[in-house]
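Case study.
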Amino acid sequence: MRILLLLLIGFLFAKADESFLMQTHIRMLPKIMALDTRLASKAPSSKLILAIVYDTNKKANAQLIANEMNTIHNGKVSNFSFTALPVSVDELMTRKEITFVYSIQHTTAPSIKKIAAWGIANTVPTFSYDVNDMEFGILGSIAIERSTIIYINKNTLKEGKYRFNDTLFQIARLVE
Amino acid sequence: MNRFKNARLSTKLFTALTLVTFIIFTTVTLVTFFIVRDLTINSQKEKAALLIDTVNPAISLALFLGIHDFGDKLSAITKRPEVISLKISDAKRDVILDYHHYDHSTSHETIQISENLMEPSSLKVIGTITLVYSGEEFTKAMNRFYTLYGWISVSVFAILWLMMVWINHLLLPIKLIAEKVRNFKLGKKIIFDIPYSQREFTQIIHSFEIMQESVIQYAQEIESINKNLEIKISEQTREAIRHLYYDNLTSLPNRIKLQEDLQLNDINTVAILNIDDFKEINDFFGIDTGDWLLSQIAHWLSEMKLKPYRMGGDEFAFRMKEGSSHNEFCHDIEMLLSLLSEKFFMIAEETVHVRATVGIAIDSDKPLIHADVALNKARSAKLPYSVYDQSEGIEQQYQANIAMSAHIRQALVEHRIICQYQPIVSCENGKIAKYETLVRIQNEDGSLIAPYDFLPIAQKTKLYHHITQEVVYQACHLFASRDEQFSINLSISDMLDNRTVTTIENILRQTGTSNRIIFEILESEGIENFDEAASFIARMKAFGVKFAIDDFGTGYSNFENILKLNVDILKIDGSLIKSIDENPRHRIVVEAIVDFAHRIGIDTVAEFVSSEEILQNVTDLGITYAQGFHTGKPQFLDHKPM
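After joint prediction, the assembly is written out as follows.
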């Protein structure tokens, strides 16, 4: 019983932590997108598309995040208008107007690899919920440690020829 | 301003130097102060701004991204001790971070820098970062500045003081030269042994030496000129003394020399010799001959061993010899006069006999005056010589005369010459027919001085004409308002004085009294100066003036002269009238005069009618008018209203 209680408490804390991190991602990611210096040239239409990429059956989660993002930012970040859309991994491979990619929690490693490769190929910044996904070529992630830390994959940054506002690199932690 | 103008050169130099240094130093200090202060404060501001700039992008981005945990990003600032506080606010001015660093040095000034935090992509202001930076560096820098300039000030003023000493030292030779020049005396050459070899001083010294040579040369020339001048002055002085003390004509010592000789010793016995009738000699032979005679007399007197002095004109003086007695001196004078009376002098091949009169003053305190008095006395008494006798009071008389002369002048100035009028009555009816004007001096106390007390003195002091003019003026103006005849006494000198005659004519014209005025002339004067009197009478008769001969019967005039003078009245002298009832001879003379007057048809006036008996006698004798105390005393008359 005790073990069950401890597990329950642990689960609840874990859930709360995940929720806080997700909220942080929802608030920060459109802004990081806005720091892409080539953003204006990338977007063919006036509205930017921030893709919330999901794997197989996680569309509801992605939709939830997209809705939350659109609500919080009211479709606008900095001087740009954007829309957060749930996009499957496969769909992502076919779409060209996407300007930023966010891979949600529990995306499989093969999908992450595909997303990272697509991002490098199209010079579209790819961020993932899980910091560990950066090992598969994802550009960046946000973690909450003692403070909020933006991680950027140095290799991917070079490989994908991403260009961000310099200040991003002043606060971001570059990792290899 | 004048004090500075007259100040010492070193003081002026030092003052100027101090002023210039002070102005330059103050200007440089102030300029440097502002530059250092601005540079330091700007440097500190730049440092603070640099610190903000360092973190600004990261903070901006963090704020943009909503990362409010700035700890790591601000550590670059907050670890610096100069940062006192840091404040980050968002666009709504909500304070996101308010960092304070504890600082003990609260006395330092602080520098506050604020910058906007901007969104990285759109550059929209999303917040503010404010840094308060410590001014300790600024304060320290300024303190270092103050210390530095304090030392510079001390150094500058030390240099100034040294310069003052140096200037004084530089100008010391001038002071030494001045002292030497100040003590310069002729005959003592200045040696400029001043141990300074600067060119300026050697030039000054050289110039002074040249000047000294010139001065010495000039002094020698002046000394030479002075010696010549002294010789000339000495000669001139001798000549002047000779002129002052010696008579040019006779070369005898003069009056001044006699006065000085009298002062030098105790012998105060003096004789003054006057040549009798020398005026006649001058008039007869001429002045040159008179002078030649005087020089002969002087020569003769010198031979008499009496050491004569020439007093001026025809007067010589002698001083009693030392060791001689008064009697011997008087005897010598008697002998001199005796010898002189026997001496003949040659003039133009003619022999001239000269006589002299001497006045002697023995042991007198005023020997010259007293000898002169004695001389006058001797001349008056027709004596060969006379010795001054104080008991005779002659000097007092002279002093009284001098006082009276001053009194007359004063009376003329103060209009105290007044007239009284004595009635002249008709013997026929006893009525006043005319008045004789009699002059008086009214003293300040109102008393009167009779004419015989002052007129003789007035005649000798040339005041007589003024008195006559005053009397004519007063009488004519009085009788201009009356209808009687009036007479005024005139002297012959009045008639000869043009100014008096003109004044009389003017007064007669102004007052219109010429047909009632009678001028009385003394018989003796009229006869002695017959021509002058006749001329004046004729001139006045043209105005209608009548003339009377006053005191007739006492002189030596003959009736022919009276006829020629054409007078209108004979005033018979009082000395004949007053004794007419006692002295038959007088009566005969009066009868003759009256008879003469009747025959030529002129009136007669009897003077000194002092009693009824005399009045009766003169009336019986047929005299026309009578005048005297019995018929009327002198009185003041008033103007009668016209």
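Observations recorded in class. Residues 2-34 of chain A form the longest helix (33 residues). Residues 21-175 of chain A form a domain with the Rossmann fold fold (CATH 3.40.50.2300). We will return to this complex in the next lecture.
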